[in-house]
Amino acid sequence: MAIRKARAQDVPAMLAIYDHFVRDTAVSFEYETPTEEEFTRRLREHIAVYPWLVWEENGKVLGYAYAGRVFERAAYAWNAEISCYLAEHIQGKGVGRQLYAAIEDILSKQGVRKVYAIVTAANEPSVAFHKALGYREALTFSNVGFKHGKWYDVVWLEKQLQPLGAPDRFPTPWEEAE
Known about the structure:
Radius of gyration: 16 Å
CATH class: Alpha Beta
CATH architecture: 3-Layer(aba) Sandwich
Order of helices and strands: EHHEEEHEHEEH
Number of strands: 7
Number of domains: 1
CATH superfamily: Gcn5-related N-acetyltransferase (GNAT)
CATH topology: Aminopeptidase
Helix content: 25-40%
Distance between the termini: 21 Å
Number of helices: 5
Strand order of the largest sheet: 1-2-3-4-5-7-6
Largest sheet: 7 strands, mixed
């Protein structure tokens, strides 16, 4: 078992995990699973600034977590969004908790002050997971996502990683912060 940096070779395994969430659930609001090319592009864009990690067992990727920009404007640079997707058979075994701890540690070193998780409200296990990790509900958008013939609420959860204070610099790319 190992947590390591994601790389382009991991894309097929990550897509296989993500496909279930796209096709069968409202956890992801995408209607179609991205192509390998599109997913590789996303990975490249994220890792230029933010961490993207995988959980690997016996040479097989069974989960991944990543952070990204949550808002566009420069004044929001001290915030990030976090996401995690796990193969069904490892959910509830502490893997997500370990991936989140690793991502949050990197984000703190980068200079990120607050992290957000954006969760479909119907995904009660995810809401409970985030609360157990110290996230608090900040905002709920009612009936904003339509998937599988149904409207869904979305909950924004937030966690303070560092005291606010006046920053002495903008957050740095994750490879420089480690």
